[in-house]
Amino acid sequence: MPQDVLRIEDGFYILSTSSRVDDRTVVLKQGDAFAIFDRSGDVEEIGTGVLGLYHHDTRFLSKLVLRIAAQRPLLLSSTIKEDNAVLAVDMMNPDIKHGDDIVIPRGSVHVFRSKVLWNSACHERLRIHNYGLSAVTIELSIDFDADYRDIFEVRGTHRAKRGTRLPGECTKNAVLIAYDGLDHCVRGTQFVFDPAPDELTAAQARYTLHLEPRAEASLHLEINCEEGLPADASARRARLGRSSRHASCYEDAAKASADELAQSRDDDPKIVSSNEQFNLWVNRSISDLYMMETKTRYGRYPYAGVPWFSTVFGRDGIITSLEYLWYEPSVARGVLGYLAATQADSVSDAQDAQPGKIVHEMRHGEMAILGEVPFGRYYGSVDSTPLFVLLAAAYYERTADLDFIREIWPNIERALAWIDTYGDADGDGFVEYARESTNGLVNQGWKDSWDAIFHRDGSLAKPPIALCEVQGYTYAAKNGAGMLARALGMREQADTLHAQAEALRERFEKAFWCEDLGVYALALDGTKQPCRVVTSNAGQCLFTGIASEDRARRVAQTLMDTPSYSGWGVRTVAATEPRYNPMSYHDGSVWPHDNALIAAGFARYGMRGAAARILSSLFDATLSFDLHRPPELFCGFPRRPGESPTLYPVSCSPQAWASGALFLLLRGCLGLQISAPERCLSFNNPMLPDSVNELRITGLAICDASVDLAFVRHDDDVGINVLRRQGRCSVIVQK
User: Fold this and answer.
1) Per-residue confidence (pLDDT) for residue 251, from 0 to 100
2) What is the CB neighbour count within 10 angstroms for residue 705?
3) d(C-alpha 503, C-alpha 498), whole Å
4) Is 660 exposed, middle or buried (0-12, 13-18, 19+ CB in 10 A)?
């Protein structure tokens, strides 16, 4: 164990004199793999114990420790490139002693390490440079290991039994360690070193480097995640080193990763403002969204978040693609295609599945394969299905891609059938949930914590539960499906769907409105009693348009008042409610995506000033976040002068729908609407946040046309100039 880390029973503690007091982590993701390192690029079992290299919900690297003369190098700087492709770390040697004598003074040797992920492997390059006046001989070691823990184990789930760790296989320059899981899948991690170490075991590589003054040595390490390995040791040994291309591998991987990211962004619009801090938020959000995307056979899909949710989530993928649909619509197509292909076709209580339902979560790890957790293909979300239909309609409005809508129309009809039958099992006209799986989610809306749905006295709501925002999603889904049916020439079906939506809106207003609270009830419980508490869910109802004009303004007034509005954003639960806790996951925290949906709802009803206020507050918050990256959530403490928002300790960062929030916020403030079937781009009473005086959006495509736009703040409004227009597209500004 390192000298600056103490172990007391089952806990690891860092000495206050250690450089490790900076416990921030850095994240790389590419495809189905992601890695979390400390800022020095190491992986050790300290802090939350989440560091490592993961692939398909399994940790393939649980230890990677670089040492110089058995000591941790001193960190100088650590940077993730703006495109998220490469981690670069600068370090130097501490004083290296022989007895009482300092033989290599501190700062004589510079260590530069850079890492990139590509094709389920981590590629690392080390450069060691002697800046001293004398030649040095220095020992460099790399300790490594893999525990093959499932992501749910890392998160804290105890397993009564695990698979078998297999003996490591070594050659001169490569090591393969492996694990035979209870699912009969042999997973392995291959470490390939170039040049070959002076000593190599199944747990450590050691180099003795002799460097003249100004001389430099370079080392390369490739760490491959491998699945389906042969159980026979000799067959595994025969694979050693086979996948490596040695010295060229890092450069090739770095170039391929950077090229893929650049190609993905080539055709997308560019957003530049007069505020450089705002530009950093924009660029980081774009980079994070691209990093979180994974290519599937159906197109691009944004995985939900690192570390806990780096996989397909139906709700998260839909909301993320909705957030930046105006900016990049092809992602929505990839999400719709994937979710249509994985739509449930039978009843399975263990999976909370019924025909027509859209998947909630998909996992590929050992515990999911064995059924120890129900999330291999799990359908326990009540909102993914109406959101799927809502997204399909929004995608058509943005792209006029009627051929694709025609292709997935059977899936849309099956989703609508689920809404009317299984989604409304008691026939009261509202969509509700009650879990069927014994170990599935108790609550199945976006606030899925066990204690998230409650009454005014703090008691938990009993199922089946009808959430207010889900009725809004359903209302928008029916109207959207009606619009699609009309576009497909099915007028009678379109009229029926619009009539169903209107009937739902009338029922909703009667059952959910709480006049004394100025909001819609959080939910109706199993006895149809309203959960009369002030929550952010009511704000999401405005996003879908189910609220009446006067009540929408009452909701906005309530949510922007002190109990609900922290100064950094709208809290999930108002401070006046019995379960309010600013440090909770869903009962008083602030979620960027939630605030984006709320702000878009405000803007829908013409309250663009309130929307701009939320955008400004979240922008201020990003100034305190590492890399200007909004996390999944942060604590809901009141904003205090001169202080930063309080971080939530295990919040995912990056989180796709947190990164997408900016684009929905910006759309709401600008009053931006795109009707591709009419080839029309419109702005309704546009506003800019206080911190931005000018904004440019260039290369915004509508069908085969594109426009460049400039927004300029004036004393009493925002002016819009069309800088370039190519192709047929009208631009309308309403004041």
Assistant:
1) 84
2) 16
3) 9
4) buried
Amino acid, res. 234:
S
Residue 476, SS3? helix
What value does the mean pLDDT take over residues 281-296?
Answer: 94
Give 127's DSSP letter. Answer: E
R_g (Cα) of the chain, nearest Å: 27
3-state secondary structure of 591: coil
- What is the per-residue DSSP string for 678-697? TTEEEEES----TT-SEEEE
Sign of CA dihedral 697, 624, 15, 71: positive
Distance CA 368, CA 182 (A): 11
680-684 and 730-734 as β-strands: parallel, antiparallel, unpaired? Answer: parallel
Task: Say if residues 84 and 28 touch (Cβ distance below 8 Å).
Answer: yes
The per-residue DSSP string of 486-498 comes to HHTT-HHHHHHHH
Region 10-27: mean pLDDT is 53
For 570, phi then psi, to 5°, come to -80, 130
Let me know how long the chain is. 735
Kindly tell me the burial class for residue 419, based on how many C-beta atoms sit within 10 Å of its own C-beta (0-12, 13-18, 19 or more): buried
Which residues does 640 contact at the CB level (< 8 Å), separation at least 6? none
What's 351's DSSP letter? G
Q: What is the pLDDT of residue 247?
A: 39
Q: How far apart are the first and last CA of the chain?
A: 66
* Cα dihedral 568, 572, 578, 583 in deg (nearest 10): -60
3-state secondary structure of 277: helix
Q: Which residues contact 87 (CB under 8 A, 6 or more apart)?
A: 26, 28, 37, 41, 78, 79, 80, 81, 114, 115, 116
Between CA 343 and CA 220 the distance in angstroms is: 44
| pLDDT confidence band for 46 (50 / 70 / 90) | low
C-alpha torsion sign, points 253, 259, 263, 266: positive
**What's the sign of the alpha-carbon dihedral 641, 517, 542, 606?**
negative
Question: What tokens does 54 get?
Answer: 């993961």
61 φ, ψ (degrees, to nearest 5)? -145, 115
Half-sphere exposure of 342 (CA within 13 A, CB side): 26
Q: What is the model's pLDDT at position 242?
A: 61
Per-residue confidence band for 21, with pLDDT thresholds at 50, 70 and 90? very low
User: Can you say how many angstroms the Cα of residue 648 is from the centroid of all Cα atoms in its chain?
Assistant: 15
State the sign of the Cα–Cα–Cα–Cα dihedral 276, 280, 286, 287. Answer: positive
- For tokens 């690891």, the residue is 12
* pLDDT digit string, tens, across residues 486-529: 999 999 999 999 999 999 999 999 999 999 999 999 999 999 99
Query: Is residue 321 within 8 Å of residue 663, measured between CB atoms?
Result: no
At residue 330, the pLDDT reads: 96
Position 7 scores a pLDDT of: 43
**Tokens at 111, concatenated:** 């260590």
CA atoms lying within 13 Å on the CB side of residue 535: 31
- H or E element in which residue 520 lies: strand 519-520
Q: Could you tell me the two tokens for 201?
A: 């075991």
User: Hey, what are 352's tokens?
Assistant: 């909370």
3-state secondary structure string across 193-249? EECCCCEECCCEEEEEEEECCCCEEEEEEEEEEECCCCCCHHHHHCCCCCCCCCHHH
- Which has the closest alpha carbon to 91: 63, 127, 57, 124? 127
Element housing 276 (H / E): helix 276-292
Going by C-alpha positions, the residue among 358, 353, 305, 306 that lies closest to residue 335 is 358
3 state DSSP class of 516 = coil
pLDDT value of residue 23: 65
**Single pTM value for the model:** 0.93
**pLDDT exceeds 90 at position 49:** no
Mean pLDDT, range 638-667, rounded to an integer: 95
Q: What pLDDT digit, counting tens, does each position of 156-206 carry?
A: 999 999 999 999 999 999 999 999 999 999 999 999 999 999 999 999 999
